[in-house]
Amino acid sequence: MTETITVNARQYTLPHAPLVVVCVDGCEPDYLDAAMASGRMPWLAEQLAQGCTRLTANCVVPSFTNPNNLSIVTGAPPAVHGISGNFFLEPDSGEAVMMNEVRFLTAPTLFQAFAKAGAHIAIITAKDKLRGLLGHGLDFDGTGHLCFSAEKADQATLAGNGIDNLLEIVGRPLPDVYSAALSEFVFAAGVVLMEQQRPDVMYLSTTDYIQHKHAPGTPVADDFYQMMDGHLAKLHAAGATIAMTADHGMNAKHDSNGAPNVLYLQDLLDDWLGKDTAQVILPITDPYVVHHGALGSYATVYLKEGIDIASVSERLAERAEVEYVGNKAKAASDFELPPERLGDLVVVSTRNITLGSAEADHDLSGLDAPLRSHGGISEQRVPLIFNRKLERLVPGHTYRNFDAFDLAINHVTEETA
Description:
Blueprint: E1 4-7, E2 10-13, E3 19-23, H1 29-37, H2 42-49, E4 54-58, H3 65-74, H4 78-81, E5 87-89, E6 96-98, H5 110-116, E7 121-125, H6 131-134, E8 146-149, H7 158-161, H8 166-170, H9 180-196, E9 201-205, H10 209-213, H11 219-237, E10 241-245, E11 251-252, E12 262-264, H12 265-273, E13 278-281, E14 298-303, H13 309-317, E15 322-327, H14 328-335, E16 345-349, E17 354-356, E18 372-373, E19 381-386, H15 404-410
Helix pairs in contact: 1-11, 9-11
């Protein structure tokens, strides 16, 4: 294999041991602390006690799944790779669309470069919405590369995913998309494939179904992290270098009675400006909104031509529920986002508030627990943990979740490599 590659202006030395990068969806660092304190993550606690590296990093804002997973696997912010949300208003068509098609991706992934250099790649996601983006540019039939989702594990084929008979190989039934079992399938499949095929680079991406419903330290959350810890221990025992991070954190977004805290931006702007003057887009929107009702802490606003953007911005900034409001240019600069995929304004709510469009447009009937969600600046803190000791770290530097590959490959000390 080629020893060194350059991807999106960053240089990587190909790993000499299997590398597993794990994105734990919605993993606020408190989940790990609580689970370790109760003895539910013995493997991780042991690694940290032995001096392996634990950092607290920042994720990309908006703190949503797609922008952050693509940042992790490109080693770059959305301004480089182009994926700035799960959902946006496409300029050419004027339609609100999912941003999960490869035509929206504007940079190569690390997987493409590693594969070209001769590495064997395995990508396992919980939900299918990420599979196409993460696996873009890879050939699967007969190449040894794998890319599949737990959600559609029963539909995996050699030609399309690099593997068939997946349920039989993993030894588990097809999991429900709204369950902890979806993430458990990801880990179990990773362990089986590491034992059977030993890929050079593996990426595991879970779902935040549990984190949306259960706070750190609760029994269900601790059960989830105990499950994860057991599978990570098996990957460690197989000799893999493990880097674990998250796409975003998670916070409670409800009042003392358990009702969602929501600022309905579309209703507010309609009241201020009149109907059909503003259009609110919620980039958290995707096909899986049952557990959060499409309520997150980040929104973009498109204003009709002639509306004074600065005036609207000033009025929004006066709201107690709003932490940040900026025009397209400012938000693109502040958050390293592609300006052509933003509205006229970007709005971010405070820690315990979510942003909605029009109240009548949100179906909250699926919220069977007090709302927990993400998307804002307050959900930026994520873990960045390795089962190795790292060297040449910059004191006081704020690392990002998309530094995971670089740190795991280029900063491992010789005695722990």
